Amino acid sequence: MSGTQRTDDRPGAPERDGEQRTDDAIVVTAPGEIAVRPVPQNTGPVAVRMLYSGVSAGTELSFLTGTNPALHSRFDAEFGLFRPGADDAYPVERLGYMEVGEITETTEFGPPVGTTVALTCGHRTATRVDPRTDRLVVLPDDLDPVLGVYVAHMGPICANGLLHAAAEECGTDVRTLGDGVRGRQVAVVGGGVVGLLTGLLARHHGAASVVVLDPTAERRAAAQGLGLDALDPDAADPADVLKSRWRHGAGDRGADVVFQCRGRTAALAMALRLLRPQGTVVDLAFYSDDGSALQLGAEFHHNGLGVRCAQIGRVPRGTAHRWDRERLSAETLDLLRHHGPAVREHVVTDVVPFAEGPALLRDLSARRRHVIQAVLAC
């Protein structure tokens, strides 16, 4: 086919003469130890040279600090339970899920050579994939490829949050992502990447008001740069502030929906306090603490509140026939078409060379550096 290339010396070429080919990847070798190491090349007829790889700091740092549950237990998919014991937890060779690359070798069922795609393969310089089983999202030519890091996975995570809010309102009959936020008062706890993109999606889909709560001034400034309101939860009781602002009737004050996007149970506790009676927290956070900050006998119980986990592995029950991962990626692309320049200016704070990735993650782990979205340039 036109555009197909078969050159064994290119990155991602198949092994020859029994030689095992490798690609460079960022690998966590033990708690606190991270480096660029050669890893075995993946198999597949399509070769991809990486351009950019986005850092998902919360998840990735949990592997570096040794707090990720998967390091100490294994998930029993049949029973939906974590079981004691994890086999060969280290090294962690697949770190990250926000990649953009260029097709350098293809086949009759793959994108043409030169196509820019979004995919999830971890921080590495190249990979091989099979388009029949591996997910590739072709990026439009007019999209800044740095923003492409959101299209395959991170953007769908945030869109899935809105989908869960919509399902709370409409059940299985969700027609648009705006069904759960349009005309409503929305709070977002956490001004990291997930919180900012989720808040921007809510605004894009017609929320009456979106307030992002974060104690970090830089993140509040980013929220305001995206056209969102921002609140410092340490300056005053945020529940008092928002419930004074959002009154629906006698004894009915607070946010219609709260998106919880900060990986601390104290943030979930705060999110519950922001809600109007019988409201729902849509939880997009990943937790690694012990949950002691929750007081479920307080507002959660007395106000009849709900918590819905919007984990990316599932869309709301009964909606999968309409809302698959491809549609969530399409919603992400739509958001970036309308707001891409603002996201690039206010969310993507750092673009660093791939080789500096381990040092960046060590600095983030030690709190020596603050970023919102760091992107590795491969």
Protein architecture, described:
With 378 residues, the protein is an alpha/beta fold. The protein has two domains: 22-153 and 349-377, Alpha-Beta Complex (Quinone Oxidoreductase, Chain A, domain 1), CATH 3.90.180; 154-309, Rossmann fold. Helix content is 26%, strand content 26%. It is built from nine helices and 19 strands. The chain has helices at residues 57-65, 154-170, 193-204, 217-225, 238-245, 265-274, 299-302, 325-346, 357-365; strands at 22-30, 33-40, 46-54, 73-76, 81-84, 99-105, 116-119, 126-129, 137-138, 185-189, 209-213, 229-231, 247-249, 252-253, 255-260, 275-283, 306-309, 348-353, 373-377. Helix 1 packs across helix 9 (357-365). It starts with 21 loop residues before the first strand and ends with a strand. The relative contact order is 0.15.
Which percent bin holds the helix content? Answer: 25-40%
How many domains, as an integer? 2
Question: Which descriptor suits the 3D outline?
Answer: globular
Question: What is the SS-derived class?
Answer: alpha/beta
* Main pleated sheet: 7 strands, mixed
Attribute tags:
alpha/beta, disordered N terminus, Quinone Oxidoreductase, Chain A, domain 1, seven-stranded mixed β-sheet
Question: What layout of secondary structure does this protein have?
Answer:
Blueprint: E1 22-30, E2 33-40, E3 46-54, H1 57-65, E4 73-76, E5 81-84, E6 99-105, E7 116-119, E8 126-129, E9 137-138, H2 154-170, E10 185-189, H3 193-204, E11 209-213, H4 217-225, E12 229-231, H5 238-245, E13 247-249, E14 252-253, E15 255-260, H6 265-274, E16 275-283, H7 299-302, E17 306-309, H8 325-346, E18 348-353, H9 357-365, E19 373-377
Parallel strand pairs: 10-11, 10-15, 11-12, 15-16, 16-17, 18-19
Antiparallel strand pairs: 1-2, 3-6, 3-8, 3-19, 4-5, 6-7, 7-9, 13-14
